[in-house]
Amino acid sequence: MRDVVAQMHRWWGEGEPFARATVVATWHSSPLPPGTSMLVGPDGAAIGSVSGGCVEGAVYELAQEVTDSGRPVLERYGVSDDDAFAVGLTCGGIIDVYVERVDPEGFPELGEVATAVAAGEPVAEVICVAVDGPDPEGRLGRRLVVRPEGTSGSLGSARLDAAIAEDARGLLAGGRTETLRYGYDGTRMDEELTLFVSVHATPPRMLVFGAVDFAAAMARIGAYLGYHVTVCDARPVFATARRFPEAHEVVTDWPHRYLRTEAEAGRIDERTVVCVLTHDPKFDVPLLDVALRLPMAYVGAMGSRRTHDDRLRRLRATGLGEEALARLASPIGLDLGARTPEETAISIAAEIIADRGGGSGTRLTSLSGSIHRPRSMRPAAGD
């Protein structure tokens, strides 16, 4: 997503119109989530994807038409009963794609959005992608840019702008992209306007505790998945940037103290994942006592089953209840037969992905039904 915004900003700065096609809604086995975009540049170059290749040809042609006409289009792509290949999505999914022309006149706020995204600052772009009935006020295609403090642009009504800004900030806090419906003047009970809230949030955090070889591999795969990775250990001789070159930061501190400080500073949210690789009760028990009391996406701890049983006993002694303890992924990772640090990191990452997306970790060949599940919209790699 960050690369797409950067390319948009380059073309926008050159003053030539181009098209952006954005997935705004999905059903069934859709290949890519809402917020995914494809650009068609002034020179005809295509960047990005809306379906992993299924309908890109049709979207490309539509994008060129929209660039010429200037009129945005909301198009639905999926399978038909008569011919599963007629519309393009052979996976059986359905997607709504909003195609719009982008230029400095129609999107003067793009520079603000691109600057925020490049700086890692949260920003949401709200676009009116559909109007139920006639559109005498020209609401279709209007946009509002929302930041934690302040807005720019307008959807055509001060009351509507205020209502959607409040909801968009809630989505910003959770890093979620969604489609919402409102009345013309911002009433939430009416549905005349379909508004797509595209959230560009700061990357989710991965906190890896324990400066060991497994942590180096975990930092590598965490960064690859788009997390902002921090490695923390109380031992300064081991917690060095040289040992963890792919971590975004390496911190020397007692793990539980560092996590508590980050939480009190508001730098921990429900997207944060914690991987405890310390193998030492004096480190991991105080740390897990803090972690399991916080609303985070994932908390996992490495160790044998004997270590796990002893850890649970110690954590119960701190006052943690069974509901909190049930959140602990221990022993950490999925059963992949992993041995090396790299293989173990993959098994941990697989568990995090399965936990986030509602997957079972079972071979797809043994399952039936949809491959792609609906998932909460957390930034993927590059966002």
TrEMBL record:
It comes from the Bacteria. InterPro entries: MoCofactor_Util/Proc, XdhC_CoxI, XdhC_Rossmann_dom. Residues 361-383 are annotated as: Disordered. It holds the Pfam family XdhC_CoxI. Residues 11-78, 117-183 form the XdhC- CoxI domain. Residues 206-352 form the XdhC Rossmann domain. PANTHER family: ALDEHYDE OXIDOREDUCTASE MOLYBDENUM COFACTOR ASSEMBLY PROTEIN, MOLYBDENUM COFACTOR INSERTION CHAPERONE PAOD. This is Xanthine dehydrogenase accessory factor.
